[in-house]
Amino acid sequence: MARRITDRTGRRIAILGATSPVGAHLKAALADRGVPGERVELFGVQSDVAVLSEYDGEARLVQPPAELDPTACSVLFVCELGHDDAILTAATASGALVVDMTGSISGARLAGTDRATPETRIVAVPHPVTTLLEGLLAPLHAAIGLARVSAFVLRPASDFGEPGLEELREQTVRLLRFEPTPTEIFGRQLAFNVVPEHLFPSGEAFTATRIVRECRALLGAPELPLAVTQALVPSFFGHAVAAHVELKRPALDEALAAWRDAPGVSVTVDPEIGATLDAPEGPGILLARVDDVGASTILVWALGSEAGASAAARAIALSAEAGVL
To answer: How many Å apart are CA 234 and CA 156, to the nearest integer?
Structure first.
Protein backbone atom coordinates (compact mmCIF):
# COMPACT_ATOMS: atom_id res chain seq x y z
CA MET A 1 0.00 0.00 0.00
CA ALA A 2 1.28 3.47 -0.88
CA ARG A 3 2.28 5.59 2.08
CA ARG A 4 0.23 8.64 2.95
CA ILE A 5 1.57 11.94 1.68
CA THR A 6 2.84 13.90 4.69
CA ASP A 7 5.51 16.33 5.79
CA ARG A 8 6.15 17.77 2.34
CA THR A 9 5.22 21.40 2.96
CA GLY A 10 7.85 23.90 1.93
CA ARG A 11 8.80 22.05 -1.25
CA ARG A 12 8.06 23.28 -4.77
CA ILE A 13 4.56 23.62 -6.22
CA ALA A 14 4.41 23.16 -9.98
CA ILE A 15 1.58 24.46 -12.17
CA LEU A 16 1.61 22.76 -15.57
CA GLY A 17 -0.36 24.93 -17.96
CA ALA A 18 0.00 28.13 -15.94
CA THR A 19 -1.26 30.40 -18.73
CA SER A 20 -4.47 28.39 -19.29
CA PRO A 21 -7.78 29.58 -17.80
CA VAL A 22 -7.61 26.75 -15.24
CA GLY A 23 -4.04 27.74 -14.40
CA ALA A 24 -5.11 31.34 -13.86
CA HIS A 25 -7.81 30.31 -11.38
CA LEU A 26 -5.33 28.06 -9.58
CA LYS A 27 -2.67 30.78 -9.28
CA ALA A 28 -5.28 33.10 -7.78
CA ALA A 29 -6.40 30.43 -5.29
CA LEU A 30 -2.82 29.74 -4.19
CA ALA A 31 -2.13 33.46 -3.77
CA ASP A 32 -5.34 33.92 -1.77
CA ARG A 33 -4.18 31.13 0.53
CA GLY A 34 -0.91 32.99 1.08
CA VAL A 35 1.41 30.50 -0.63
CA PRO A 36 4.67 32.44 -1.24
CA GLY A 37 5.83 32.97 -4.78
CA GLU A 38 9.22 31.35 -4.16
CA ARG A 39 7.48 27.99 -3.77
CA VAL A 40 5.45 28.26 -6.99
CA GLU A 41 6.91 27.36 -10.39
CA LEU A 42 5.01 27.98 -13.63
CA PHE A 43 5.26 25.73 -16.68
CA GLY A 44 3.71 25.75 -20.13
CA VAL A 45 2.56 22.28 -21.07
CA GLN A 46 1.92 23.02 -24.73
CA SER A 47 4.83 25.33 -25.43
CA ASP A 48 8.56 24.86 -25.80
CA VAL A 49 9.10 28.63 -25.61
CA ALA A 50 9.40 30.43 -22.28
CA VAL A 51 6.79 33.18 -21.87
CA LEU A 52 5.87 35.71 -19.20
CA SER A 53 2.97 35.37 -16.80
CA GLU A 54 2.41 36.51 -13.21
CA TYR A 55 1.83 35.20 -9.71
CA ASP A 56 0.22 37.34 -7.04
CA GLY A 57 0.91 40.47 -9.07
CA GLU A 58 4.57 39.62 -9.71
CA ALA A 59 5.86 38.97 -13.23
CA ARG A 60 7.02 35.38 -13.54
CA LEU A 61 8.64 33.23 -16.20
CA VAL A 62 6.61 30.33 -17.58
CA GLN A 63 9.18 27.62 -18.23
CA PRO A 64 9.11 24.77 -20.73
CA PRO A 65 8.28 21.35 -19.20
CA ALA A 66 11.84 20.13 -19.76
CA GLU A 67 12.96 22.48 -16.96
CA LEU A 68 10.74 20.80 -14.36
CA ASP A 69 12.31 18.62 -11.68
CA PRO A 70 9.33 16.57 -10.46
CA THR A 71 11.29 15.04 -7.57
CA ALA A 72 11.65 18.51 -6.00
CA CYS A 73 7.89 19.07 -5.91
CA SER A 74 5.34 18.37 -3.22
CA VAL A 75 2.40 18.83 -5.61
CA LEU A 76 1.92 19.20 -9.36
CA PHE A 77 -1.27 20.79 -10.66
CA VAL A 78 -2.01 19.69 -14.25
CA CYS A 79 -4.11 22.50 -15.73
CA GLU A 80 -3.76 21.92 -19.46
CA LEU A 81 -3.91 19.00 -21.87
CA GLY A 82 -0.65 17.64 -23.25
CA HIS A 83 1.00 16.55 -19.99
CA ASP A 84 4.11 14.35 -19.97
CA ASP A 85 3.37 10.97 -18.37
CA ALA A 86 7.04 10.50 -17.50
CA ILE A 87 7.04 13.68 -15.40
CA LEU A 88 3.92 12.58 -13.52
CA THR A 89 5.31 9.10 -12.91
CA ALA A 90 8.56 10.54 -11.53
CA ALA A 91 6.61 12.91 -9.28
CA THR A 92 4.42 10.21 -7.74
CA ALA A 93 7.42 7.91 -7.30
CA SER A 94 9.07 10.61 -5.17
CA GLY A 95 5.95 10.96 -3.03
CA ALA A 96 4.41 14.05 -4.64
CA LEU A 97 0.69 14.56 -5.16
CA VAL A 98 -0.52 15.05 -8.75
CA VAL A 99 -3.78 16.99 -9.06
CA ASP A 100 -5.46 16.55 -12.44
CA MET A 101 -7.64 19.53 -13.39
CA THR A 102 -8.14 18.32 -16.98
CA GLY A 103 -9.82 14.95 -16.54
CA SER A 104 -7.29 13.44 -18.94
CA ILE A 105 -4.85 11.50 -16.77
CA SER A 106 -5.32 7.75 -16.93
CA GLY A 107 -5.69 6.20 -13.50
CA ALA A 108 -6.54 9.45 -11.69
CA ARG A 109 -9.14 8.97 -8.97
CA LEU A 110 -11.98 11.44 -8.83
CA ALA A 111 -12.12 13.58 -5.70
CA GLY A 112 -15.36 13.13 -3.82
CA THR A 113 -15.67 9.42 -4.58
CA ASP A 114 -14.73 6.41 -2.47
CA ARG A 115 -11.85 5.62 -4.83
CA ALA A 116 -9.98 8.78 -3.80
CA THR A 117 -8.30 7.91 -0.47
CA PRO A 118 -5.56 9.62 1.57
CA GLU A 119 -3.07 7.30 -0.14
CA THR A 120 -4.10 8.38 -3.65
CA ARG A 121 -1.18 9.94 -5.54
CA ILE A 122 -3.07 11.11 -8.64
CA VAL A 123 -6.40 12.74 -7.86
CA ALA A 124 -8.75 14.36 -10.39
CA VAL A 125 -10.73 17.48 -9.55
CA PRO A 126 -14.19 17.53 -11.15
CA HIS A 127 -14.84 19.93 -14.02
CA PRO A 128 -16.32 23.24 -12.80
CA VAL A 129 -19.64 22.46 -14.50
CA THR A 130 -19.65 19.05 -12.79
CA THR A 131 -19.39 20.78 -9.42
CA LEU A 132 -22.28 23.07 -10.36
CA LEU A 133 -24.51 20.17 -11.43
CA GLU A 134 -23.51 18.04 -8.45
CA GLY A 135 -24.65 20.79 -6.09
CA LEU A 136 -27.96 20.95 -7.93
CA LEU A 137 -28.64 17.21 -8.23
CA ALA A 138 -27.06 15.60 -5.15
CA PRO A 139 -29.71 16.83 -2.66
CA LEU A 140 -32.50 15.41 -4.84
CA HIS A 141 -30.72 12.12 -5.41
CA ALA A 142 -30.17 11.65 -1.67
CA ALA A 143 -33.69 12.63 -0.59
CA ILE A 144 -35.89 11.28 -3.39
CA GLY A 145 -33.91 9.59 -6.15
CA LEU A 146 -33.29 10.62 -9.75
CA ALA A 147 -34.82 8.79 -12.70
CA ARG A 148 -33.59 10.98 -15.58
CA VAL A 149 -31.92 14.38 -16.02
CA SER A 150 -31.35 16.65 -19.00
CA ALA A 151 -29.39 19.86 -18.36
CA PHE A 152 -28.47 22.78 -20.60
CA VAL A 153 -25.64 24.92 -19.19
CA LEU A 154 -24.90 28.50 -20.28
CA ARG A 155 -21.28 29.42 -19.61
CA PRO A 156 -19.82 32.96 -19.41
CA ALA A 157 -16.53 34.42 -20.61
CA SER A 158 -15.15 34.26 -17.06
CA ASP A 159 -14.69 30.50 -17.53
CA PHE A 160 -11.70 31.49 -19.67
CA GLY A 161 -10.13 33.75 -17.06
CA GLU A 162 -9.06 37.37 -17.42
CA PRO A 163 -7.99 36.84 -21.05
CA GLY A 164 -11.53 35.68 -21.88
CA LEU A 165 -13.10 38.66 -20.16
CA GLU A 166 -10.76 41.05 -21.92
CA GLU A 167 -11.36 39.47 -25.34
CA LEU A 168 -15.15 39.70 -24.97
CA ARG A 169 -14.84 43.34 -23.95
CA GLU A 170 -12.53 44.11 -26.85
CA GLN A 171 -14.74 42.25 -29.31
CA THR A 172 -17.76 44.27 -28.20
CA VAL A 173 -15.94 47.60 -28.48
CA ARG A 174 -14.50 46.81 -31.91
CA LEU A 175 -17.78 45.55 -33.32
CA LEU A 176 -19.44 48.81 -32.36
CA ARG A 177 -16.63 50.57 -34.25
CA PHE A 178 -17.06 48.22 -37.25
CA GLU A 179 -13.49 46.96 -36.75
CA PRO A 180 -12.10 43.38 -36.92
CA THR A 181 -12.33 41.53 -33.62
CA PRO A 182 -9.63 39.53 -31.76
CA THR A 183 -10.30 35.77 -31.54
CA GLU A 184 -7.18 34.38 -29.80
CA ILE A 185 -9.11 33.05 -26.77
CA PHE A 186 -12.47 31.94 -28.15
CA GLY A 187 -11.36 31.14 -31.69
CA ARG A 188 -14.28 33.13 -33.10
CA GLN A 189 -16.59 36.03 -32.31
CA LEU A 190 -18.41 35.59 -28.99
CA ALA A 191 -19.81 39.13 -28.66
CA PHE A 192 -23.49 39.20 -29.76
CA ASN A 193 -23.18 35.47 -30.46
CA VAL A 194 -23.77 32.06 -28.86
CA VAL A 195 -21.16 29.32 -29.33
CA PRO A 196 -22.21 25.65 -29.04
CA GLU A 197 -19.97 23.14 -27.30
CA HIS A 198 -18.55 21.55 -30.45
CA LEU A 199 -17.15 24.98 -31.37
CA PHE A 200 -15.66 25.68 -27.92
CA PRO A 201 -11.96 26.62 -27.75
CA SER A 202 -9.39 23.84 -27.49
CA GLY A 203 -9.46 22.08 -24.14
CA GLU A 204 -13.18 22.73 -23.54
CA ALA A 205 -14.72 21.25 -26.68
CA PHE A 206 -16.74 18.07 -26.01
CA THR A 207 -16.33 18.31 -22.23
CA ALA A 208 -19.96 17.21 -21.70
CA THR A 209 -18.87 13.57 -21.86
CA ARG A 210 -16.45 14.18 -19.00
CA ILE A 211 -19.09 16.08 -17.02
CA VAL A 212 -21.65 13.26 -17.37
CA ARG A 213 -19.09 10.65 -16.31
CA GLU A 214 -18.03 12.67 -13.27
CA CYS A 215 -21.60 13.49 -12.20
CA ARG A 216 -22.58 9.83 -12.28
CA ALA A 217 -19.52 8.90 -10.22
CA LEU A 218 -20.11 11.61 -7.62
CA LEU A 219 -23.79 10.75 -7.31
CA GLY A 220 -23.01 7.03 -7.08
CA ALA A 221 -25.43 6.45 -9.97
CA PRO A 222 -23.41 4.94 -12.85
CA GLU A 223 -26.53 4.09 -14.88
CA LEU A 224 -28.37 7.39 -14.42
CA PRO A 225 -29.75 8.67 -17.76
CA LEU A 226 -28.06 12.07 -17.82
CA ALA A 227 -27.67 14.42 -20.79
CA VAL A 228 -25.63 17.63 -20.62
CA THR A 229 -25.48 20.31 -23.31
CA GLN A 230 -23.36 23.45 -23.08
CA ALA A 231 -23.13 26.81 -24.82
CA LEU A 232 -20.80 29.77 -24.39
CA VAL A 233 -22.75 33.03 -24.18
CA PRO A 234 -21.62 36.69 -24.44
CA SER A 235 -21.91 37.29 -20.71
CA PHE A 236 -18.98 38.27 -18.50
CA PHE A 237 -20.06 36.42 -15.35
CA GLY A 238 -22.80 34.07 -14.19
CA HIS A 239 -23.67 30.48 -15.12
CA ALA A 240 -27.22 29.34 -15.79
CA VAL A 241 -28.62 25.81 -15.81
CA ALA A 242 -31.95 24.82 -17.35
CA ALA A 243 -32.71 21.26 -16.28
CA HIS A 244 -35.55 18.79 -16.71
CA VAL A 245 -35.32 16.53 -13.65
CA GLU A 246 -37.42 13.38 -13.51
CA LEU A 247 -37.70 12.13 -9.95
CA LYS A 248 -38.44 8.56 -8.92
CA ARG A 249 -41.77 9.75 -7.49
CA PRO A 250 -43.79 12.97 -7.39
CA ALA A 251 -42.18 15.06 -4.63
CA LEU A 252 -41.92 18.76 -5.46
CA ASP A 253 -42.26 19.90 -1.85
CA GLU A 254 -39.64 17.36 -0.75
CA ALA A 255 -37.31 18.54 -3.50
CA LEU A 256 -37.61 22.15 -2.36
CA ALA A 257 -36.99 21.13 1.23
CA ALA A 258 -33.93 19.12 0.23
CA TRP A 259 -32.47 22.11 -1.61
CA ARG A 260 -33.16 24.46 1.28
CA ASP A 261 -31.35 22.11 3.65
CA ALA A 262 -28.36 21.63 1.32
CA PRO A 263 -25.20 23.67 2.01
CA GLY A 264 -24.37 26.17 -0.71
CA VAL A 265 -27.88 26.11 -2.23
CA SER A 266 -30.48 28.84 -1.80
CA VAL A 267 -34.05 29.02 -3.12
CA THR A 268 -35.62 32.36 -3.97
CA VAL A 269 -39.33 33.17 -4.05
CA ASP A 270 -38.80 36.50 -5.81
CA PRO A 271 -40.32 36.23 -9.33
CA GLU A 272 -38.15 39.14 -10.52
CA ILE A 273 -34.91 37.19 -9.95
CA GLY A 274 -33.50 34.82 -12.53
CA ALA A 275 -31.22 36.67 -14.95
CA THR A 276 -27.55 35.64 -15.04
CA LEU A 277 -26.64 38.95 -13.39
CA ASP A 278 -28.56 37.67 -10.35
CA ALA A 279 -26.10 34.78 -9.89
CA PRO A 280 -24.40 34.58 -6.48
CA GLU A 281 -21.23 36.64 -6.22
CA GLY A 282 -19.35 33.80 -4.52
CA PRO A 283 -19.57 30.00 -4.65
CA GLY A 284 -23.04 28.53 -4.45
CA ILE A 285 -26.22 27.89 -6.40
CA LEU A 286 -29.37 29.96 -6.54
CA LEU A 287 -32.61 28.16 -7.46
CA ALA A 288 -34.43 30.95 -9.27
CA ARG A 289 -37.42 28.99 -10.55
CA VAL A 290 -38.81 25.49 -10.06
CA ASP A 291 -41.92 24.31 -11.92
CA ASP A 292 -43.84 21.07 -11.61
CA VAL A 293 -44.49 19.92 -15.20
CA GLY A 294 -46.15 16.64 -14.26
CA ALA A 295 -45.26 12.94 -14.32
CA SER A 296 -42.74 13.35 -11.47
CA THR A 297 -40.79 15.86 -13.58
CA ILE A 298 -39.71 19.32 -12.47
CA LEU A 299 -38.24 22.10 -14.58
CA VAL A 300 -35.39 23.97 -12.89
CA TRP A 301 -33.72 27.29 -13.67
CA ALA A 302 -30.62 27.71 -11.50
CA LEU A 303 -27.79 30.24 -11.37
CA GLY A 304 -24.18 29.84 -10.27
CA SER A 305 -21.02 31.90 -10.33
CA GLU A 306 -17.26 31.49 -10.21
CA ALA A 307 -17.37 27.80 -11.12
CA GLY A 308 -13.72 27.89 -12.19
CA ALA A 309 -12.68 29.51 -8.93
CA SER A 310 -14.65 26.90 -6.99
CA ALA A 311 -12.83 24.07 -8.79
CA ALA A 312 -9.48 25.70 -8.01
CA ALA A 313 -10.46 26.08 -4.35
CA ARG A 314 -11.35 22.39 -4.27
CA ALA A 315 -7.91 21.51 -5.66
CA ILE A 316 -6.23 23.63 -2.98
CA ALA A 317 -8.31 22.03 -0.25
CA LEU A 318 -7.36 18.54 -1.45
CA SER A 319 -3.70 19.47 -1.41
CA ALA A 320 -3.97 20.92 2.09
CA GLU A 321 -5.66 17.74 3.34
CA ALA A 322 -2.81 15.71 1.85
CA GLY A 323 -0.28 17.85 3.73
CA VAL A 324 1.54 19.19 0.67
CA LEU A 325 0.80 22.90 1.06
So the answer is: 7
Q: Note whether 223 and 184 are same-domain residues.
A: yes
CA distance 11 to 41: 11
State which residues form the domain around 190: 130-307
DSSP-derived secondary structure for 118-171: TT-SEEEPPPHHHHHHHHHHHHHHHHT-EEEEEEEEEE-GGGGHHHHHHHHHHH
Cβ-contact 197, 229 below 8 angstroms? yes
Instruction: For residue 6, tell me if it sits in a domain.
Output: no
Phi and psi at residue 233, to the nearest 5°: -115, 155
Which pTM value belongs to this model? 0.88
pLDDT at 305 over 60: yes
Q: How many domains does the chain have?
A: 2
Q: Which H helix or E strand runs over 26?
A: helix 21-33
Sign, Cα dihedral of 106, 203, 92, 27: negative
Q: Quick one: which of 36, 122, 52, 116 has its CA closest to 87?
A: 122
SS3 state at 231: strand
CATH of the domain at 92: 3.40.50.720
Residues 249-253 have a mean pLDDT of: 93
**Are residues 277 and 143 both part of a single domain?**
yes
Looking at the fold, whether 150 and 279 belong to one and the same domain comes out as yes
